[in-house]
Each structure stands twice: as C-alpha cells, then as structure tokens.
Design a protein that fits this description.
The chain has about 120 residues and is an alpha+beta fold. The protein contains four helices and three strands. The protein has one domain. About 45% of the residues lie in helices and about 15% in strands. Helix 3 runs antiparallel to helix 4. The longest helix has 21 residues. The chain is globular and about 40 Å long. The N and C termini lie far apart (about 40 Å).
C-alpha cells in the first residue's frame, strides 16, 4: 500500500510514477499499487495504455458488446494514473477505454478483427 506522502513525493519529483487503482475496489487505497517510475511522460502514458488495452482486448475477444465492454471496464478494470510535477502529463483511463472500444469496434466493421457475438454501439 502506498501512503499519501508517497504520492506527494512522486508528484514533486522530475519523474513520472504510474499508480494503479482497482475499479472493483473504488476509493480503497489499500488496493492501489505502484506500477513503476518512468523517465518520460510518453513512457508513463504507454504503460497506462497497456493496462487498459489488455483488459479491453480480452473482453473483446470474449464477444462482449461495446456497452458490456465499457461497463465491465468501469466496474472491474484497473485504473492507472500518472503522478508527476509535470502538470501537462495526464492520462484518463476511462476516456482512453472509451476511445479504444470505439477503435476496436470500428476495426471490426473493417474486418480487421474477429467480430464479437453481440457488437452493439452505445446510443
């Protein structure tokens, strides 16, 4: 478990620390872990994206609909975030998950990925 002073220390450093919360245990800091520290914002964002991508791609392969995939991510997925003194470096896992789902289902229409059984976009 990372304490608030650890987060503050990382926020004041010149590096980019990625922490991961668990959406299933929303607001439970004891479920939080530190993924790592990165030298650049780009590296930290890539690490965050990988966590979200792994969850979404697995759910997509299982044939979930757009709505099911987003809802499962919001309720059960891991929620990575970046702590740094660089205020221009930001990552929203929920926004990225929605964007990636849109891309996955768009690729499906183009035949690039195996179609899910129940693909249905949100309206």
């Amino acid at each position: 478990m990372r304490k608030k002073k650890d987060l503050k220390k990382d926020a004041e450093s010149k590096t980019y620390s990625v922490y991961v919360d668990d959406n299933f245990h929303y607001m439970d800091e004891s479920e939080r872990y530190k993924l790592g520290t990165f030298e650049t914002c780009k590296e930290a964002v890539a690490a965050c994206m990988k966590i979200v991508d792994e969850f979404l791609e697995e759910g997509y392969k299982d044939g979930k609909s757009f709505r099911q995939l987003i809802e499962e991510y919001v309720f059960y997925g891991e929620d990575p975030f970046i702590v740094s003194s660089d205020k221009t470096c930001f990552f929203s896992a929920r926004d990225y998950a929605r964007k990636r789902c849109t891309e996955l289902f768009s690729q499906n229409k183009q035949g690039a990925l195996k179609p899910p059984n129940t693909a249905r976009p949100l309206r």
